């Protein structure tokens, strides 16, 4: 390979990158040392050089380094230093893959990533899917889903991040899988991603209202509340009967936020369902929490009955009367 000096900002490092692209181990090691440097200027110089040279082979080598973490540049004796350098290499490689400084980079990168998506080595597929997903390639979704099922925690988190960037309907189920795996960082990141998908995630949240884990049901109620679609109210109201206090109160809060548009569903629910003391309190919380004073005034007879445990027998009758009046108006 020859160095195209007219477009190489750092010729000395350019020769090093070309040697690395030829597979020379020492040159690869030296490139990684630049990328691992705590000096941002040295790291930037090497990133710019990789952009300028843009040989297909160097992209494949960097992707393999990201996937397998196989390098030995003389810092193994200090495990903390090695760990920090490893993080810097990862960030440097990811950044250089995600930014196209020259038009000719795009085609070369996409070809390298496309081949790696079919690689028999799972780690290579995971790394390629993450980068491809962050670059907006929808082909990465099945492998990102596979990463969530089988990858280690770092790669699971990266997969969630890539799915959030893609924001396609096909990303919802893998994100639900990540949400239900634990209640740690993976759970929180998956929830954030699902919320970011808005209405695309609504059917998933509805399904999760029936999940055996009360915490997931709580998340589902809140997720639907963030979407703010009153069409979910007839399903949401069932949460007022949930055996878990937090789920009932989250449901009530969401229904209150939906406001007047959720009132018919609540009135119908109260009219025809057998209310326990706990569900009666939750229903009161939902109706009393509606911001509109006019709406609360119309519902005052029902609110009084819900508030008074001795009038619980009148609740369904009052709710039904209000429902008829509401629908006729």
Structural commentary:
Helices cover 70% and strands 0% of the residues. With 329 residues, the protein is mainly α. Among the domains are: 1-116, no CATH class; 231-329, no CATH class. Helix 4 packs across helix 7, helix 13 runs parallel beside helix 15 (245-258) and helix 16 runs antiparallel to helix 20. It is elongated. The model is unreliable at 74-81 (pLDDT under 50).
List keywords for this structure.
70% helix; 20 helices; mainly alpha
Report the total helices. 20
Mean pLDDT: 91
Alpha-carbon distance between the two ends:
80 Å
Radius of gyration: 28 Å
Largest sheet: none
Share of helical residues? 55-70%
Return the structural class.
mainly alpha
Order of helices and strands: HHHHHHHHHHHHHHHHHHHH
**Regions with little confidence, pLDDT below 50 for 5+ residues:** 74-81
User: What share of the residues does DSSP label as strand, in percent?
Assistant: under 5%
* Shape, principal axes of CA atoms: elongated
How many strands in all? Answer: 0
Give the gist of this structure:
With 329 residues, the protein is an all-alpha fold.
Q: Mind sketching the topology for me?
A:
Elements: H1 11-21, H2 25-35, H3 40-53, H4 56-68, H5 79-98, H6 103-116, H7 122-134, H8 141-150, H9 153-166, H10 172-179, H11 185-196, H12 202-208, H13 214-227, H14 233-236, H15 245-258, H16 263-272, H17 277-288, H18 293-298, H19 300-307, H20 315-328
Helix pairs in contact: 1-2, 1-3, 1-4, 4-5, 4-6, 4-7, 6-7, 7-8, 7-9, 8-9, 8-10, 9-11, 10-11, 12-13, 13-15, 15-17, 16-20, 19-20
């Amino acid at each position: 390979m020859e160095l195209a000096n007219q477009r190489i900002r750092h010729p000395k490092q350019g020769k090093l990158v070309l040697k690395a692209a030829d597979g020379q181990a020492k040159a690869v090691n030296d490139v990684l040392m630049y990328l691992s440097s705590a000096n941002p200027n040295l790291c930037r110089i090497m990133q710019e050089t990789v952009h300028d040279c843009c040989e297909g082979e160097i992209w494949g080598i960097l992707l393999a380094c990201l996937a397998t973490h196989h390098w030995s540049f003389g810092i193994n004796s200090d495990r903390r230093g090695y760990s920090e350098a490893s993080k810097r290499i990862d960030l440097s490689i990811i950044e250089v893959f995600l930014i196209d400084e020259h038009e000719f980079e795009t085609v070369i990168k996409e070809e390298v990533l496309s081949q790696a998506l079919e690689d028999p080595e799972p780690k290579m597929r995971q790394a390629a899917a993450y980068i491809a997903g962050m670059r907006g390639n929808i082909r990465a979704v099945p492998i990102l889903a596979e990463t969530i099922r089988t990858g280690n925690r770092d790669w699971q988190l990266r997969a969630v991040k890539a799915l959030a960037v893609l924001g396609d309907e096909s990303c919802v189920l893998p994100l639900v899988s990540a949400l239900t795996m634990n209640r740690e960082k993976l759970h929180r990141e998956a929830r954030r991603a699902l919320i970011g998908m808005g209405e695309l995630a609504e059917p998933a949240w509805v399904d999760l209202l029936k999940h055996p884990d009360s915490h997931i049901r709580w998340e589902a109620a809140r997720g639907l509340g963030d979407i703010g679609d009153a069409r979910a109210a007839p399903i949401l109201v069932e949460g007022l009967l949930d055996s878990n206090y937090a789920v009932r109160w989250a449901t009530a809060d969401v229904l209150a936020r939906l406001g007047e548009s959720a009132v018919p569903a609540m009135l119908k629910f109260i009219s025809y369902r057998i209310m326990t003391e706990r569900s009666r309190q939750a229903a009161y919380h939902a109706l009393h929490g509606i911001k509109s004073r006019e709406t609360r005034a119309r519902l005052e007879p029902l609110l009084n009955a819900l508030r008074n445990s001795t009038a619980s027998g009148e609740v369904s009758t009052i709710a039904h009367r209000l429902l008829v009046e509401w629908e006729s108006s």
